[in-house]
Amino acid sequence: MKKICVFCGSSKPENINLKNEVISLGKLMLTKRIELVYGGAKIGLMGLIAKTILDGNGKVTGVIPKILSKKEIINKDVTELIVTENMHERKKKMYDLSSAFIVLPGGIGTLEEFSEILTWKILGIESKPIFLLNFNGYYNFLLKQFNEMEKNNFLYSDISKEIKIIENVSELEKMI
After folding, report:
1. What average pLDDT does this structure show over 133-162?
2. For a pLDDT cut of 70, what percent of the chain falls above it?
3. Distance in angstroms (rounded) separating the CA atoms of residues 49 and 53
4. Among residues 50, 70, 80, 176, which is most buried (max CB within 10 A)?
5. What is the rounded end-to-end Cα distance, in angstroms, of the chain?
6. How many CB atoms lie within 10 A of CB 47?
7. Nearest alpha carbon to residue 27 among 3, 46, 51, 11
8. What's the CATH code of the domain at 118?
9. Which domain holds residue 50?
10. Which residues 6+ apart lie within 8 Å of 131 measured at CB?
11. The total number of structural domains that make up the chain
12. What distance in Å separates the CA atoms of residue 168 and residue 9, rounded to the nearest whole number?
């Protein structure tokens, strides 16, 4: 894997253990010489993983739509910055640049990005690996919802075959 896209929040979490896990992810990517593709913000978890990789002389590509350039504070320190016209173009560009995805805890934007790439995978549009970091059970309710969807025959695929659920970066290290 040459480039991995990381979906995560631009908000600053209070949980120091989550921050440490994100730093560990950045260090793992540096060790494996994997470039980061991410949402282009300088703040929150986005800013933290980008800073970790940049501080270690790694490569970072930020992809941000014009509409978020004021709200999320663009990280102009990245190796490459791509400004897109809209959110859809952003996700498509991130997908095209990446060979895998890691979904960290985040808000509705992170959930939306995850949902779209998961849908593409289920429909057979693309087949890149998706890793869901269920840090401290953050995504337990979402995973329960997937089970409910499956029970009610609303899923066309077994989610456990489409994504790799990991509890921490140590588990990820064995997979990439």
Report:
1. 92
2. 98
3. 6
4. 50
5. 7
6. 22
7. 51
8. 3.40.50.450
9. 3-173
10. 100, 101, 102, 103, 163, 164, 165, 166, 172, 175
11. 1
12. 17
